[in-house]
Every structure is written in C-alpha cells, then in structure tokens.
Amino acid sequence: MRFRVVAVFLLLAVFSSCVSGRLLTEANQSLERGEYHAALEKYKLVSQKEKDPKKKAQIALYMADAYMEQGSYSQSAVWYKNAIRRGHNSSDIRLRYGDALRASEKLDELDLLLGELKKTDPDNPRLNNSIASLKLIHHWQKLPPIYLIDNLKTPNSPGDEVSADIVPGTVNRILFSSSSENTEGKDISPVTGQKFADIFIAEYDSAHSKWSLPKPLGDSLRINTEAHESGIAADREGKLIVFARAVYTSGQKMTSQLYFSKKENGRWTTPEQILFTNDGASYLDPSVSCDGKWLLFASDRAGGKGKTDIWKSEIKEGQFSGPVNMGEQINTPGRETGPYMKKNGHLYFSSDYHPGVGGLDIFRATVDLNGKWTVENMSTPVNSPADDFGIVFYNKGEHGFFSSSRKGSRAVDLYSFYSPPRLFQCFGKVCNMETDSVIDNVNVRVVGTDGTSLLMKTDKGKFQVDLKPEADYAIMVFKKGYLNAQAKISTRGLRDALEFNLDFKQTPTDQPITIDDINYETGKWDLLPESRTSLDKLVEVLSINPDISVEIMSHTDDVGDAAFNMELSQKRADEVVRYLVQKGAAQTRLKSKGYGESLPLRVRLKTAKKYPFLKEGDVLGVKYIEQLTNQKDQEIARSLNRRTEFRVLE
C-alpha cells in the first residue's frame, strides 16, 4: 500500500514538473513574440510552482522585462530587485532596474544605485544617460511649468486611447485609437491584455466645455475591423489617411503594417497596404508631416539603431518612397516612437533612451543648415515618470494633444496641452564700432525657427521686435559702408517673460580694420596659438558678409632692416590667408599684402582714449616715436605699428 502511495506521488510530481516545464516554454515563447500580457500570466503560474533557484531567478528577470515593456514600471522594479537578489546583477540588468525605479519615482533608491554603478562601470553610456536624467528631474522640479495639461476625460475608457490626430479643417474633432468595449472585434490582445483597438472620433462641445463620447469611425472609410487598428494620421488637406493594422495569428509574432486611403471624387478609396511594410517587420504610429511631403512612422525594420526607430518616406504623387532612417542623432539603442513633424521642420517624437523623466518621454528635435539635429526634452509637465507619447499640434500655437499613462489615467489616456502666452521682446541698439555713435536707418533682418521673417529699419539707432516661445532667432543688422553684424537668441525652455537687450557694433569699411591679438614668433611668420581666436572671428565676419572680398594687411615696426621687414610682413599676411582658407574661407575672396614699416598707424579715437599720450589723427612714424620722451611710450607706439589689418575691397 505504501509503495502505491509513493508511486502516485512520484507520478504527480513528474506530471507537475512536465506541466510546469511546458508552461515555462510557452511563457518564454510568448515573451519572445512580444506577447507580454500572455507571458506574464504564464510566468505567474510557473513562478508559484518552480522550486529550482536558478529557474526562479530567470523567471523573475523575464517578468521584470515583460512588465517593463508593458509600461508597468512599479511591478517591473519589484521583479528586477528580485532577480538581482537571486544573482542577476550585471550592469545592464541593474540599469534596467534603475529605469524602472526612475519611472516609479523612487529617486533616492535610484541615486544610490547609480552611485554604485559609477564606481564599477563609469564609462557605460546608459549609466551616463541615467545620471543626466536624474539631474534634469531635480532641475525641472524647481521651475514653473511651461504648459498646462488636462485629461480629456470623456473620450478615455478603461482601455488605452492613443495616437490622436486632429481632423483636417477642424479645431474641435479628433481621431484616435481606442481599445474600449465598443471596438469591432471581441478578442483580447496577448500583448496588452485589452481588446484589439479600433479608430474612434470625438468632438468638443464648446457649449458644455467638454468632449463628446467617442464613436467608431464611419463605415465609409472601411478602416475598423476585428483586427488591431492602432494609429491614424491624415494630411492637412484631408485627402490622405494612413493607419496601422495588425492581424493576430496564434503562435506567430503579431506585427503591424501601414495602410492608406485616398479621397477621390468625394469618396474614400478601399484601404491598401503600403508596399514596403510587407517585409515581416512592424510599422507603428504613422504621421503625415504638416507640409504633406513626408510619411513618418516607427518601425523595427532591418537597418535600425534600436528596438524601434523613427523612419520617413517621401510622399510623391500619391506614392511612398523607400524608408529612410532619421539617423543616430534621433534614434538610439532604445525605443523611439510617435513621430510628428511641424511645418517648420521641427520633429517631435518619444524615446525611452534619451535623458528624461521616465518611461517614454516626448522630445523636440531641430535641424541646422548642415543637417545636424539637436534633441531636447519637452520637460515636465508634458513628460511624466510614466509613458508620454503621440504628440500632435494645432496648425498655430503651442497646443494640441498627446497620450499618457501618468498618475490619474485610467490606462493610457488622451491629454490636451496648452502653453499660456509668455511675452518675449528684443530691444536692439546699433552703434559705430569706432566712435560709439548711434547709426540710424540701419536694416534689421529677423529670422526665426517659428517661421518669423521680418525686415525693418532702426529709428534713431534702435529697434524692437516681439518673439515667440520655444523658438530660435538670428538677428542681422546691415547698412552700406559697414560690416554686417549678427546675434543669435533663443526663447527655448524659458518659463517666464524676458526682455533681450542687444547692442550691435557695426564696423565702418572706409578704413582698414585692425584684427586684435594677432601674434607671431619673433622675427618669423608662424602664428602663435592665441591668434586663432581672433582669426576664427574673422572667418565668421566673412560668413555673415558673403558679398565682400578683403585684403589682409600685415605691418611691422621700424626696428631692423626695411627690406627684411617688408618680406616678413608679406609672409605673415600670406600665413593669415592660409589659415583663413583652412577654416573654410574662399580663396577668391582673400588677398594678402605686406607693408613692412611703410604704413605707420594713424591713431583713431578708441586708441587715443586707451593711451592718453596719443591724440586722434597722430601718425606713429619714426620721427613721431623718437620725439616721445618716455621709453615705455615709444615701445607702446611701436607695438601698435606691429599689426595685422584687413580692408574691404571695392
């Protein structure tokens, strides 16, 4: 009898072990396919039964990763801590734990963790990102908010509401994806644990100051199906719609493709798949740039930098060109998603790798004339410790919508954002560099990344211009007979009103212009290192005065042989030209001439003010210098003659 009982227990143990092993295999397969909800449900069952310490440690790590991918950061932090305690303590896993702590607002624990990692793995780029993120969080906590944030409430459900877009030609209607109970299909997504999503529309009721209950997008567009429709975008003319659709097949990784529909003769065409999305990769978050030229999206297609990258495809005559990756200044080893491009070319997207508050943060990227992108976090309160993504803007102003899973959300909710008016003004004054006198009737050009392009004239040497928030400006002053002058200012990140006061000094071109601090080896023509700063400024002068050519003029004092001094000055002038060309100045705009000791300095007002023994108009020739009774004054006069100048050629 005892033998039979033991045999039964052994059979049950073997059966339980087989069931547990099979369930663990299925859980791992679900995780590999990105079915995070399904994987977690299986891991929970296996974790309760598993006795092997190594397997329990691995299950803890897998659960932490799955919770992280779901955006359940508090649970993720618990399971990472569990996995680390059980021996999974590599820098990579501890940094993932740090990301979960940051998104869970456990900043003191994060600070301790980063301090430990700094000692053991100081050059890790992810570590440096995490340290930068923590500094940003502490910095933003001290600043007043730029934006006002509001939950839309009525359109939001216990499911996820994502990927909003403003209906073309309206200001009070939005399209978005929702996994609410009112979707077409009835199946549950193994990725999110929610119903497969459809596209809905909601309208703002200004009479009652609230949004309407959302309705599924009409049948005429033939978009909603039993599959997962997860994002939608329209061009500004209302003639093109692009959306993402994923069809789930059990046992296969669920990938999303992009579809488009065009409005022809007042009717929408049957949705067609964009051809390049039929490659087995996943395509998400489509967006049509405000100028209608580009389709932007996120994808894990081959050739990317990380989990998902931002890509673009040119739209020409209703066709979509092959995708182009937005590059490593935008894309990272992490996840980039939710692209949106304004008319001015500013790119907005979300990332979980660039330094931020936590989870996915929304970023703004601006590109310069050389194609280099500068990425900046939109800061709090747009960004939160949770996931923030899918930002869109109205045509004018700093207001629009985005999605967030922040505290107070039912799941992922739709939010509006609005930047209250902030007054920024620039007051400018233009004076003569040599005399400090006001120059009147000067042309002033103001160009801004917000689309500003103004041309005005000074009134009694002064001008004033109003600036907009979150913009960069270049201000140039120009008048015939003077060198152009330029200043750059920015209102980015400024949370309070501010006045900019600019004092421009324009240099007259009717006389040679001395280049200060140009020094050479004694008796030689080799430039000393300290000369580079001044010459680099001259390169900039040439850049903002593209229509001028100049002669580089080199002078010596009267000490030594005149023929030697003439030859030395020519070589010095040649050396300056060589340096300028090396720095990008066009050779055709430059001439060089050495004058030796033949053109002593004629004293100008500024020099006379600096040296009391000199008077404006004095010429520092040999006889003048020799009549100076103070030897120190004589040396000062000779040093003034040893100079490098340039003059503008007609």
Task: Please describe what this structure looks like.
With 650 residues, this protein is α+β, with helices and mostly antiparallel strands. It folds into four domains: 19-140, Serine Threonine Protein Phosphatase 5, Tetratricopeptide repeat (Alpha Horseshoe), CATH 1.25.40; 148-418, 6 Propeller (Neuraminidase), CATH 2.120.10.30; 424-506, Carboxypeptidase-like, regulatory domain (Immunoglobulin-like, Sandwich); 513-649, OmpA-like domain (60s Ribosomal Protein L30, Chain: A, 2-Layer Sandwich), CATH 3.30.1330. The strands form eight sheets. Strands 2, 3, 4, 5 and 6 form a five-stranded antiparallel sheet that branches. The longest helix is centred in the N-terminal third of the chain and has 31 residues, at 2-32. It is elongated, with a radius of gyration of 34 Å.
Summarize the topology.
Elements: H1 2-32, H2 36-49, H3 53-70, H4 73-85, H5 91-103, H6 107-120, H7 125-140, E1 148-151, E2 161-166, E3 173-178, E4 198-205, E5 210-211, E6 215-216, E7 228-234, E8 240-246, E9 256-264, E10 267-268, E11 272-273, E12 283-288, E13 294-299, E14 309-316, E15 319-320, E16 324-325, E17 336-341, E18 347-351, E19 361-367, E20 373-377, E21 388-393, E22 399-404, E23 413-418, E24 424-432, E25 443-448, E26 453-457, E27 462-467, E28 472-478, E29 485-490, E30 498-506, E31 513-514, H8 531-544, E32 549-555, H9 562-582, E33 590-596, H10 605-610, H11 622-626, H12 631-641, E34 644-649
Parallel strand pairs: 24-30, 32-33
Antiparallel strand pairs: 1-23, 2-3, 3-4, 4-5, 4-6, 7-8, 8-9, 9-10, 9-11, 12-13, 13-14, 14-15, 14-16, 17-18, 18-19, 19-20, 21-22, 22-23, 24-27, 25-26, 25-28, 28-29, 31-34, 32-34
Helix pairs in contact: 1-2, 2-3, 3-4, 4-5, 5-6, 5-7, 6-7
